Amino acid sequence: MVRSLDDRRAVSVAWPLYAGGMTTKGTDSTIAAPVLKTLSPSRASDFKTCPQLYKFKSIDKIPTEPTVFQARGTTAHLALERLFQLPRDQRTPEQLYGLFRMAWTELKVDEYPDLFASVDDERAWGIESLNLLASYFTVEDPSSFEPLELEMDLTVDVNDMTIRGILDRMEEITETGPDGVERELLVITDYKTGKAPPERYANKAFFALKIYALLIRITKGITPDRVRLLYLNGPTEYTMDVTSGQLDAMERQLEALWSAIERAITRDNWPATTSALCDWCDFKADLCPAWNTDEADKADGAGTGKSPEVAVEETPSATPGASTE
Fold first, then answer.
1. Nearest-5° angle of CA 208, CA 239, CA 252?
2. N or C: which terminal CB in the chain sees fewer CB atoms within 10 Å?
3. Statement: the pTM of the whole predicted model exceeds 0.85
4. What stretches in the chain show pLDDT beneath 70?
C-alpha cells in the first residue's frame, strides 16, 4: 500500500549524512555503533558502483578540485530552473543565454574563484557552454508545457530509511499511442551537461531516477510513468517507462543498500570495485587501494572485487533517442 508522507513520522535530519559524523544505537553513548542517518540517490549509486568511492565522498569527505564541467553543470541547472520561472512566451534561447551569464556571475566568485587561468579561457568556456545550451531547444520547446516541479527538495521516510535528494524537474505530457489514443504521462526529467554515455552505462543514472520515482510515489500517491535523461551535449535523450513493480523492487534494493552501508561502516570494510568507470574517478590516481599499492596496504584487508551483498535490480533496457532537428 502506498502511503503519503503525512502518514509517516516526521524526521528532522541533520546534514551531512551522520549527526556529528555518526550517531549511536542504544542509550550508552560510549557504544560506537554507527547508524546511517540519510542517503541520497547519488550516494546510493556511488556505493552500488564502488563502496570505496562512497567512503571517499561520504565518510572521509575528501575534497576534489572543481572542474569546468562541474561549473557548467551547476550554472546550466540554475539557468534552466529560472527559464521555467518566466512566462512561456519569454522562454527563448536569448533569455536562456542571459540567465546562464547571470548565474555564472553569481556562482563564480564563491564557488569557482580560481577555475580559469585567464579571461580568454573563461570566455572560450562560456562560448562552448552557450553552444551547448542552444542544443537544448532542439530536444524540446520549453514554451510548450508548464513543469509541475522544479529543483524539488525531497526528504522522505522510506520504511526505516530517510532518503534525501533534489529532483531536477517533473511535468505532465500528452502522448499519442500507437492506437491513436492520447494519454497523460507523469515524467521525471534529469538534465546532464556532459556527453551521453553508451546506453549500457546509462543504467547507473536511471538507478538514481527510479529512486526519485519511488519518492514521488510515496509523497504524491502516484507512480510516475517515465523517467528521462536529457544530455545537452549531443543532444541525446534516454527514456525509460516505469511500473509499480519496478519501484517495489527499487524499495527492496534501497533497503539492501542501506543495510550494506551500515555493515560497511560498522566493520570499516570498503571494497574497491574496479570497472571501466574507474577512468573517470577523482580518487584513482592517488588514493584508491585497487590502483595504488601503498593505499592497498593501508586498507587493512578491505580488499577489492565485488560490492557487499546487495540485491541486483533487474533493469529494463533504456530507449535512446537523439534529436536531429
1. 35
2. N
3. no
4. 1-34, 294-325
